[in-house]
């Protein structure tokens, strides 16, 4: 997953060196989102996540994505080819993220939430890793891209060591209409609506937090240390904080319930989105602390939406239902990733993130409706 934000992490360097426009900077992330949506729609319609050996599907996807990311080193950063390569990278993620979740669920007993939390914790660390590479790679943005491709190549090899658990259902027959069950079944529909509220906020925060922190830190320190500390703070919030949030969220959800955890986490992250702008230009330590709290809460619920889908779906179609969920969620992020820059330009960074609070607050409503549905008894062994 280090490929996802490998280009986004070096955007400040590319802006300084090549003069990328805000629109070009946004496309570094949104091209991946578009590719992911295209890949997941194709996978869902063809049932690839349920009909192919998940390890081989994962391996092939990781190899192609690693190559596409590495090719960024040989094209001009302002070239349209950059966005094509980012699209290909995103499309390949359709064979990595939801497929990985399916493999994790195949081993679950009474710990679906924790297993999903572990997987999303790894996803979070991987997504944040380019910011760490960028901090220690200095101005050499090529190092960040190369390191991300190397990790993806390693993952393509390591996935072959993974065993498939006893819960893996036999491959079903091809049925393109099965993907529509994700919104036809009321319980699945409310779980997916909750996920949409979560995704409204998540990737916009992940994409722009480093830029926000960099701009804030420059108010109180020189440009070079501001850039370095903003990268470390972003990795701390996204990677370390996010991974801790995923693991804690999984353990809490398995014990106290999926809807309990998701509603609590979305309430907390929404409040962080509303409040973080008021610390713009304040002490970097104080701002970094609130960013870390946001990093924990914004992703603590992520795995639990997927766990809910896995528990509410027919066993033979878990892969497809997870693919549909991630597809519609990342389709929404195409809007919110592009929403932040014009808000920052119009209102300033002090208020740019406040609009992101809309999503989690609506997500709380959706999960409250799921909690009231009879099928919620299937969540977390009856712990709603």
What descriptors fit this protein?
0% strand, mainly alpha, 384 residues
Describe the structure.
With about 375 residues, this protein is mostly helical. About 75% of the residues lie in helices and about 0% in strands. The chain has 17 helices and no strands. The chain has helices at about 10-20, 20-45, 50, 55-70, 80-95, 95-105, 110-135, 140-160, 180-185, 185-215, 225-255, 260-275, 285-300, 300-310, 320-345, 350, 360-370. Helix 10 runs parallel beside helix 15 (about 320-345) and helix 12 packs antiparallel against helix 13. It is globular and about 55 Å long.
Give the SSE map.
Elements: H1 11-18, H2 22-46, H3 48-51, H4 54-70, H5 80-93, H6 97-105, H7 112-137, H8 141-158, H9 181-184, H10 186-217, H11 223-256, H12 258-275, H13 284-300, H14 302-312, H15 318-347, H16 349-352, H17 358-372
Helix pairs in contact: 2-5, 2-15, 4-5, 4-6, 4-8, 6-7, 6-15, 7-8, 7-11, 7-14, 10-11, 10-13, 10-14, 10-15, 10-17, 11-12, 11-13, 12-13, 12-14, 12-17
Please provide the ordered H/E string of secondary-structure elements: HHHHHHHHHHHHHHHHH
The average pLDDT value, as a whole number, equals 85
β-strand percent reads: under 5%
Assigned CATH class: Mainly Alpha
Class of secondary structure makeup: mainly alpha
Q: CATH-wise, what's the superfamily? A: MFS general substrate transporter like domains
- Using the 3D structure, state the CATH architecture: Up-down Bundle
How many strands?
A: 0
Task: Tell me the number of structural domains.
Answer: 1
Number of helices: 17
CATH topology grouping: Growth Hormone, Chain: A
* Radius of gyration computed on alpha carbons: 20 Å
Largest sheet: none
What form results from the Cα inertia axes? Answer: globular
User: Which residue ranges are poorly predicted, with pLDDT under 50 across at least 5 consecutive positions?
Assistant: none
Determine the fraction of residues in helical runs and give it as a percent range: over 70%
Q: How widely separated are the two ends?
A: 30 Å
């Amino acid at each position: 997953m280090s490929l996802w934000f490998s280009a986004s992490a070096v955007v400040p360097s590319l802006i300084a060196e090549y003069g990328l426009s805000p629109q070009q900077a946004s496309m570094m992330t949104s091209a991946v989102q578009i590719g992911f949506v295209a890949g997941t729609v194709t996978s869902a319609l063809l049932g690839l996540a349920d009909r192919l050996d998940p390890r081989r599907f994962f391996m092939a996807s990781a190899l192609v994505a690693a190559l596409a990311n590495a090719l960024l080193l040989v094209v001009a950063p302002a070239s349209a080819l950059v966005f094509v390569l980012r699209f290909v990278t995103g499309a390949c993620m359709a064979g990595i993220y939801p497929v990985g979740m399916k493999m994790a669920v195949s081993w679950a007993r009474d710990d679906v939430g924790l297993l999903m939390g572990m997987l999303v914790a790894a996803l979070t660390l991987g997504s944040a890793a380019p910011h760490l590479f960028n901090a220690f790679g200095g101005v050499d943005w090529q190092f960040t891209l190369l390191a991300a491709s190397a990790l993806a190549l390693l993952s393509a090899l390591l996935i072959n060591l993974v065993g498939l658990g006893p819960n893996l259902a036999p491959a079903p027959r091809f049925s393109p209409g099965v993907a529509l069950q994700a919104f036809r079944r009321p319980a699945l529909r409310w779980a997916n609506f909750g996920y949409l509220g979560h995704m409204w906020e998540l990737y916009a925060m992940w994409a722009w937090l480093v830029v926000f922190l960099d701009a804030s830190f420059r108010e109180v320190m020189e440009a070079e240390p501001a850039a370095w500390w903003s990268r470390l703070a972003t990795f701390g919030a996204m990677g370390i904080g996010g991974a801790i949030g995923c693991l804690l969220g999984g353990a809490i959800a398995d014990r106290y319930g999926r809807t309990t955890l998701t509603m609590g986490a979305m309430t907390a992250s929404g409040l962080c989105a509303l409040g973080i702008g008021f610390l713009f230009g304040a002490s970097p330590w104080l701002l970094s602390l609130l960013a870390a709290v946001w990093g924990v809460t914004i992703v603590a619920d992520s795995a639990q939406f997927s766990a809910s889908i896995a528990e509410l779906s027919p066993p033979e179609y878990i892969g497809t239902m997870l693919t549909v969920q991630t597809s519609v969620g990342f389709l929404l992020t195409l809007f919110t990733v592009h929403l932040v820059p014009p808000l920052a330009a119009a209102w300033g960074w002090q208020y740019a993130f406040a609009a992101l609070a809309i999503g989690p607050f609506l997500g709380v409503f959706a999960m409250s409706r799921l909690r009231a549905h009879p099928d919620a008894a299937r969540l977390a062994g009856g712990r709603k």
